[in-house]
């Protein structure tokens, strides 16, 4: 996987972060990691993203106590999954994962929309860390959540957003 960092923009009450990664694996393999229940715990969290608009989006981050319990808001097999990174009663925090073929590999674009006033730097840093986990899982060597990546990215993104 190559590429790193996030770009930020403000739009419609949200801070939008876009993270693009260039993966060496073909789109079908990356799609399996993003969409199959058995693969999600290797890089994100145990749970389920039902393969249809309106389907359940449930992820249980037991270590942090965070539970995502929302619905799939966009879905195209092999190309796109979108859901809210929230639980019932919380603000909507859309996350969109889009794949496109790129040579022999895949371009993955993750777009996060964090409500203005929430810590968009922290959200983007969390996804940076999970994308590092995705890279390791795709290589067949899953890793635990990389807290050092998270902490360094969080500080860098907070500084970017403050300027």
CATH class: Alpha Beta
Number of helices: 3
Annotated CATH architecture = 2-Layer Sandwich
Order of secondary-structure elements: EEHEEEEEEHH
Spatial extent as radius of gyration: 15 Å
Count of all domains: 1
Query: What proportion of the residues is helical, as a percent range?
Result: 25-40%
Describe the strand arrangement of the main beta sheet, using strand numbers: 1-2-8-7-6-5-4-3
Main beta sheet, described? 8 strands, antiparallel
> How many individual β-strands?
8
Q: For the record, what is the CATH homologous superfamily label?
A: START domain
Low-confidence stretches: none
| CATH topology-level name | Alpha-D-Glucose-1,6-Bisphosphate, Chain A, domain 4
The proportion of strand residues reads 35-45%
| Net shape | globular
**What is the residue-averaged pLDDT?**
93
The helix/strand class is alpha+beta
Which keywords apply here?
single chain; 163 residues; alpha+beta; Alpha-D-Glucose-1,6-Bisphosphate, Chain A, domain 4; eight-stranded antiparallel β-sheet
Short description:
With 163 residues, this protein is α+β, with helices and mostly antiparallel strands. It is built from three helices and eight strands; from the N terminus they run ββαββββββαα.
Report on the architecture of this protein:
- By secondary structure, this protein is of the alpha+beta class.
- It has one domain (6-162): 2-Layer Sandwich (Alpha-D-Glucose-1,6-Bisphosphate, Chain A, domain 4), CATH 3.30.530.
- It has three helices and eight strands.
- It has helices at 27-35, 120-138, 147-162, and strands spanning 6-11, 14-23, 47-49, 56-61, 66-76, 80-84, 94-102, 105-115.
- It has an eight-stranded antiparallel beta sheet, covered by helices on one side.
- Helix 2 (120-138) packs antiparallel against helix 3 (147-162).
- It starts with 5 loop residues before the first strand and ends with a helix.
- The mean pLDDT is 93.
